[in-house]
Amino acid sequence: xxxxxxxxxxxxxxxAVVIIFFERQSPSTTWAWLMVLVFLPxxxxxxxxxFNQNFTRKKMFYWADKEKIGIKERTEEQIKTIKDGxxxxxxxxxxxxxxxxxxxxxxxGALFTQDNNVTIYTDGxxxxxxLLADIKEATDHIHIQYYIIHEDxxxxxxxxxxxxxxxQGVQVRVLYDYxxxxxxxxxxxKELKQAGGLVEVFFPNFHxxxxxxxxxxxMDGKIGYVGGFNVGDEYLGLDKKFGxxxxxHLRTEGEVVHALQTRFILDWNQASKHHDIAYEKHLxxxxxEAGNVGAQIVSSGPDTEWQQIKNGYVKMVNSxxxxxxxxxxxxxxxxxxxxxxxxxxxxxxxxxxxxxxxxDHMFVYWATLSHAGDLLKxxxxxxxxxxxxxxxxxxxVDDTTASVGTxxxxxxxxxxxxxxxxxxxxxxxxxxxxxxxEKDTPLAREITWEEYKKRPKIIQLKESVSRLxxxxx
Length: 473
Hints:
Layout: H1 2-21, H2 27-39, H3 43-51, H4 71-84, H5 92-96, H6 98-108, E1 113-123, H7 124-137, E2 141-146, H8 153-167, E3 171-177, H9 190-194, E4 198-202, E5 216-219, E6 223-227, E7 245-253, H10 256-271, E8 293-300, H11 308-319, E9 323-327, H12 335-346, E10 350-356, H13 362-378, E11 381-385, E12 389-390, E13 394-397, E14 401-405, H14 411-416, E15 419-425, H15 427-440, E16 444-447, H16 449-453, H17 457-469
Parallel strand pairs: 2-3, 3-4, 7-12, 9-10, 10-11
Antiparallel strand pairs: 1-7, 1-8, 2-5, 5-6, 6-7, 8-15, 9-13, 11-16, 13-14, 14-15
Helix pairs in contact: 1-2, 2-3, 4-6, 6-11, 11-12, 12-13, 13-17
C-alpha cells in the first residue's frame, strides 16, 4: 500500500508540473487544479483525467457542404471591405461597432447581417406559446436543439406538437444534450420517431465535463430562436423551489436565421451517426428583408482557441460610455472581464449586475457573491432578483448594442460548454432590453458596499473557498 501511495504521490507531482509549465491555463484554473491535487491526491488525479480533456486541437464540427451556402466567401468579403472602409453599413449605430463586428468575423466567421427582425421574450409561457405556434405553421422542416428537454408537461407538449408535424410530412430533427437531459425514458421520443422524426444525442456517455449548452429552434429556415430557456415545467415557473422563472429569449426573422441554421447543422452532424444533413436549398430559402436589426451569431466552446463570446462581452464593456446592464444566473468572470467591468465602474459608467437570490449550485452561488463584492468596491451596483429565479444571459450597453444567448458569466460557459449568443447592433432592441432590466429592478434588492462588508465571517470563508475552486467546477 505504501508503494502504491508513493507512486500516486509521484504521479501527482508530475501532473502538477505539467499543469504549471505545459498546460498554459489561466492562473485561477492552474491554482484550482493544484488545490484539487494537493487535497485529493488520488481522487484529484482521476478527476483531472476525466474533466480536463483538451479539444482545441480537434476539428469537431464539420459540414462538407458548408461552402455551398457561401459563408466563407461572404465573410472574407466583409472582412476585406470593413478593412478598406468600403463596407456598406445601413445604420450609423452598426458602423460604430465595426471593430466588434470585425473581431467576430475574423475569429468566429460570424457573418454580419442587417435585415433582421427580433422579438424579445422574458416569460416562459409567452416564449413557448410563440414557438409552438411557429411549429404549427411549419411546412418543410423543424430543427430543435436544447441542453435540457424534460419529460414533463412542457416536454410532452413540445414532443406532441413535433410528432403531429412529422405525421404531416414535415422533416423534424431534435438534438439534446446527454447530461442536461439525463433521465429521459427510452419511449419518450418513440412516437415521434415512428412518425419519421429524427432524434440525436450530443456526447452520450462520455466527455462529462463538456456539454452542449446551446438552445436553438429553426422553422423552415425562415424563423429562428436562441436564448436562455430550456424545455421543462420549471421554465414556466411551475417549480416551487425556484418560483417564477425569469429568462431572455429571442425570436428572429431575416438572414440571421441562416446563421442559426448553420450552427444547428454543424452540431447535428457532429452528433449524428447515420443521418448527416447535406446541403439542400430548402434549408436556406431566399428571405425577404424582415427589419433593420444588425446581428451576428457567435459560437464558442472547448474546441476553439479563442473564447469568442467572452471576448465579445469584454469588447462591449470596454466600449461603454453611459451604462452597462448585465443579467446572469452565475457571475464568475475571469480577470479580463472582471477588470473591464471594474474599470468601467471606476470611470463613471453606470454598471449594474443582476443575479439570483437563491442558488441552484451552491459553490457557484458563493463564488458569484465573492465576485459581486469586487464590483461593489469599484462602484458598481449589484441587484439580487427576488421574484423567483433569474436565468437570463443578457448584456446591454448604452442603448446601442446587446448580447442575448446561452452563455453565462462563468468559466464553464467561456471554456467548457458549447455556447451560442446573438450580438445585436440596434438601438431599439437595446432599449427594449434596457427597459426589461429596469422593469426587473423593483423586484430586486440592491446590495450596498457597506452591507456587503458586514456579512458573517463564515459566509466570507465559503465565498473565498468557492471562488478558489470555481474554475474547475
